[in-house]
Design a protein that fits this description.
With 122 residues, this protein is mainly beta. Helices cover 0% and strands 58% of the residues. The relative contact order is 0.32. The termini are far apart. The protein is elongated. The protein contains no helices and eleven strands.
């Protein structure tokens, strides 16, 4: 069993910063790509940022230059540093990771966290 637990969400004023964390626990052999998604009310989840096992990153155009994704492989934890926040960043943010759980299988499984609310006031 693998769990992803997000933390760090909350209420912040426009222009402020928040740092989200995503801690993976359980039986973990390795974690491939880690991602952050967000979901606006009534909308589908959208990809915000992704980071490979080796540290290569990708960002949605709407957050480039403001958000930074990182990871600590030794701690099985991913981060999303969010700076210069805007009211339109208000959403529930979800962590997603491809995790290998078995030494005898090379298969990776997609796992989701429970989500954390980020609210940016104007």
């Amino acid at each position: 069993q693998v769990q992803l637990v997000e933390s760090g969400g909350g209420l912040v004023q426009a222009g402020g910063s928040l740092r989200l964390s995503c801690a993976a626990s359980g039986t973990i052999v390795s974690i491939n790509e880690m991602r952050w998604y967000r979901q606006f009310p009534g909308k589908q989840r959208e990809l915000v940022a992704a980071i490979s096992m080796g540290g290569s990153t990708n960002y949605a155009d709407s957050v480039k230059g403001r958000f930074t994704i990182s990871r600590d492989n030794a701690k099985n934890t991913g981060y999303l540093q969010m700076d210069s926040l805007k009211p339109e960043d208000t959403a529930v943010y979800y962590c997603n990771a491809d995790i290998r759980r078995d030494y005898y299988s090379a298969r990776y499984f997609s796992n989701w966290g429970q989500g954390t609310q980020v609210t940016v006031s104007s």
